[in-house]
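Data card: per-record layout.
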Amino acid sequence: MSFAFLLAALVALAPGIRAQVPAPVAATEALSDGPHVLWHGSKADVLMVREGRLEKAALGAKGMLALPGLPPLKLNPTGPRAPLADVPGSDQVAAVSDIHGNLQGLLTLLRAHKIIDAANRWTFGKGQLVVAGDVMDRGPQVTEAYWLLRSLEAQALKRGGRVHLVMGNHESMMLTGDQRYVNPKYKQLSAGLLPGLDVLYGPDSEVGRWLRLRPALVRVGRTLFMHGGISPQLLASKPSLQTVNESLAALWKPGASEEARKTMLGAHGPLWYRGLIPGADTKLGDASPEHVQALLQAFDADRVVVGHSTLDAVTAFHEGRVIGVDAGLKDGKGGELLLLEKGKAFRGLPDGTRLAL
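The structure for this 357-residue chain is written out next.
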């Protein structure tokens, strides 16, 4: 089955993506999903659901995983490599966030701005793509979206580019067992055909292993990317890029303390804090201009890019020092990209139009 056919089927089966409560989906026998790779030591099983039928096979000895509509991906029994979270800038950087299972919206944006071609191949050269969290939940195409990003990550490296996925609060929710916003499709599949989501995203699944390596913060040149924001409370602890990312990574290991979990995953943590977007945090209030400046100085950056708080368009705040890139993909809309080119910022629209920010 081609990627395009699978995509069309999924779109047709899902009556729509809702911001809070996902719509019902079709009967289990009509659903498709996968692949899901579950490791057992040095060997792995590959699970694929096609139109209500579960297919199970062993991962080949060479570790090559077939992905519908994408190049085969080589997997390593020891796990994916940890990504770099502090890299030099590029002449071209694109950023998007809060995909929430809206694969078609993501594909449209990436193709319209020549980041990928119609065959889902990387065409951005030495450019860098940053996804500022929340691929998980709400929509019905989460699995396919993760494999697309995983594939583009590998493709980009071969061309001198990079793909970065920052941990979002919905990724962390799945990794901690909070499934409130999962699309009904996945609960139906787990109830009859596939293992539970705690297994499909557990530490022995390929996607689960990959997600647990995602950083809270990524700095590309002089731009700092994160899902939520750095709160005054967190900034008071004198954090660094390294210490914040290490604190998040420690949560997925045995023995993580409840205090550490609250610091990283609470309202003041980098995955949840909304105060950098004026008016977005009704409980903690807006970050002051002084806080924004102190944040940038602490992380040696000129601007910070965040998702998490949905806007009508990619929007700059605090005299361009904060940019919000959650532009409605989670609601099934077309969304927008942020494009940074040689110091200039643009909004990238689904039809390929670029507007100066």
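Known properties of this structure: The domain at 86-356 is CATH 3.60.21.10 (Purple Acid Phosphatase; chain A, domain 2). The chain has eleven helices and 17 strands.

See the next section for split statistics.
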